[in-house]
Task: inverse folding
């Protein structure tokens, strides 16, 4: 899979996961967390080789956002 397609797919999946969570929970600002996640995905230095963010050794998200996501 080409790198940009992989990046766009991850953005789509993460955005959907955040949206589904926010439909049932009011404790997170969906727009803010989605924008943050997209920014981090766009700058992920290991996108080519990674599988899931939770398995990554460098963690692009800060601790607060990682917990929310």
Result:
């Amino acid at each position: 899979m080409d790198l940009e397609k992989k990046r766009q797919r991850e953005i789509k999946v993460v955005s959907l996961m955040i949206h589904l969570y926010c439909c049932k929970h009011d404790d997170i600002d969906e727009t803010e967390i989605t924008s943050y996640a997209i920014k981090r995905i766009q700058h992920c230095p290991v996108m080519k080789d990674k599988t899931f963010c939770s398995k990554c050794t460098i963690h692009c998200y800060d601790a607060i956002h990682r917990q929310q996501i």
